[in-house]
Write a structure and sequence with these properties.
The structure is a single chain. The chain is mostly helical and 314 residues long. It has one domain. It is 50% helix and 1% strand. It has helices spanning 4-15, 31-53, 67-73, 80-99, 113-132, 136-156, 203-207, 256-278, 280-287, 294-312; strands spanning 180-181, 210-211. A two-stranded parallel sheet has the order 1-2. Helix 2 (31-53) crosses helix 8 (256-278) and helix 2 (31-53) packs antiparallel against helix 9 (280-287). The radius of gyration is 23 Å and the shape is elongated. The termini are far apart.
């Protein structure tokens, strides 16, 4: 019988559905890096707002932010819970590539834009509902999962190639248009010029601002772009090549950093939406920042024990 690892490798070969690296390779930005950068940035903003509201000074941590420096700036009781929460969110982000590897909507592949957006908005509603119940564990798990799908939009679609400089805010709203999506019969790509895929998206697609994403697997509709990469067998079918920006070495790797920056901005935007719904203090609880009364509680327990001992000696 095939081992679990072997089965996963085979599935990778069959589907080619991947996103930003799920581990940091030292150059390309991973889902984990993108997620952490956005969480740290948003948490600093929340802590600054709370400090100003309370008439207190706030000192920004040095850049680049770390979980420890942000927790310290927020005057958290400890950085441990914050670090554990970030890790949990990252783990659930990574799990999407394991649990939903062959589900195109979870990665905005095969032009499944409406379905992908529904995954995000349904999940976002679940995060907000869990926060209201103070079920922060559930909120964190769901948050990590939908962030993966959101981030993949910028790596797998042509949003960057259309020269957009801001995130697609309608991805976190259920009652708006996310853009003009290519019809299934519409051609979107030409063959790459050898290994050069910088101009393989058709000019009319870009000029008319038509949303597209790459197809994966063993077949695709005539004229459609592929995701690309060595695991995507559809990229050997004309039009050959791909359009993903998952790493610097991807077919559209020259746009990897731009796509990652937009994914960070989009992640921050979604976190800000969660913050507004929850309120600053609840948001900090969800994100693992515990502030306040640890010293006071220790003193209270100390004096309680003193009183008990004094009573027992009477």
């Amino acid at each position: 019988m095939m081992s679990g690892l072997a089965a996963l490798c085979l599935l990778l070969l069959q589907t080619g559905i991947l996103g930003f690296n799920i581990v940091f390779d030292g150059n390309s930005l991973s889902h984990q890096e993108i997620t952490q950068i956005a969480i740290l940035k948003t948490t600093v903003q929340v802590c600054q707002a709370l400090a100003l509201a309370e008439g207190k000074n706030f000192t920004f941590p040095p850049q680049p932010f770390t979980a420890e420096s942000v927790a310290d700036a927020c005057q958290a009781n400890s950085s441990n819970s914050f670090i554990q929460t970030i890790n949990l969110i990252q783990d659930n982000n990574r799990n999407v590539d394991i649990e939903h590897l062959s589900d195109p909507p979870y990665h905005f592949d095969r032009e499944k834009f409406s379905e992908g957006r529904k995954i995000i908005t349904d999940g976002l509603s679940a995060v907000k509902a869990s926060n209201k119940l103070q079920n922060f564990e559930a909120a964190r798990e769901q948050l990590g999962a939908i962030l993966h799908t959101l981030q993949d939009f910028y790596s797998h679609s042509n949003w960057v190639e259309m020269e957009n400089t801001l995130p697609n805010s309608n991805l976190i709203r259920s009652d708006t248009s996310i853009g003009n999506i290519a019809a299934e019969s519409r051609a979107t790509c030409r063959n790459c010029n050898g290994d050069d895929c910088t101009n393989n998206i058709l000019e009319d697609i870009l000029q008319e601002k038509i949303l597209i994403s790459g197809y994966t697997g063993v077949s695709k509709p005539i004229g459609k772009c592929s995701h690309g990469g060595k695991f995507d067998t559809s990229s050997t079918i004309e039009p050959k090549g791909g359009i993903n920006k998952d790493t610097l070495s991807s077919n559209h790797g020259h746009l990897h950093i731009t796509a990652a920056d937009l994914a960070i901005a989009a992640t921050s935007e979604l976190l800000e939406d969660v913050r507004k719904a929850a309120g600053d203090r609840v948001f900090l609880q969800m994100i693992g920042i515990s502030k306040g009364s640890s010293n006071a509680l220790c003193m209270l327990l100390f004096w309680f024990m003193v009183c008990v001992c004094a009573y027992l000696t009477l």
